[in-house]
Design brief:
This protein is an all-alpha fold. It contains 5 helices and no strands. The radius of gyration is 17 Å and the shape is elongated. The protein starts with a helix and ends in a 7-residue tail after the last helix.
Length: 139
């Protein structure tokens, strides 16, 4: 359990480092809004992983549920990172960055595939963490 917590901490700080590095394209590159979105969502993802790492030993989950939560959290976090970096690289329009502009087909297909991974993964991970935090702490 402690080794999993340390792995989550390492992944959380690795994503945070990547989020910091995403500040360079925000300042220097084209598509500033899209890069800013990738930068901010990477920070949010890193904070989610770090928060789960902090409560990891408090979770009251079966081993199989704990494994699913671990994998789902990291899969969702990295899929989110990949989706947002891809979106910034190809300047994919979005409802926040450029509302009303139609999506290019192949680019939207890649983004939709990554979204189809990240959304259920993160929902599963957060639901399991919430379930694991139910009741009083372990005796």
């Amino acid at each position: 359990m402690e080794s999993e917590r340390r792995r989550l901490l390492r992944h959380g700080f690795a994503v945070m480092m990547f989020a910091l590095l995403l500040g360079f394209p925000v300042a220097l590159g084209p598509h500033n809004r899209a890069w800013m979105a990738a930068h901010v969502t990477a920070f949010i993802g890193s904070l989610l992983v770090l928060a789960v790492a902090q409560v990891w030993t408090e979770l009251r989950l079966r081993d199989s549920q704990r494994k699913v939560a671990f994998v789902a959290l990291l899969l969702g976090t990295y899929a989110n990172l990949a989706a947002n970096v891809f979106r910034a690289m190809v300047d994919l329009p979005g409802p926040a960055t450029r509302p009303g502009i139609p999506y290019p087909q192949w680019q939207f297909a890649v983004f939709a595939l990554l979204s189809a991974v990240l959304v259920p993964s993160l929902l599963t991970a957060v639901a399991l963490v919430l379930m694991g935090l139910r009741g009083s702490s372990r005796p």
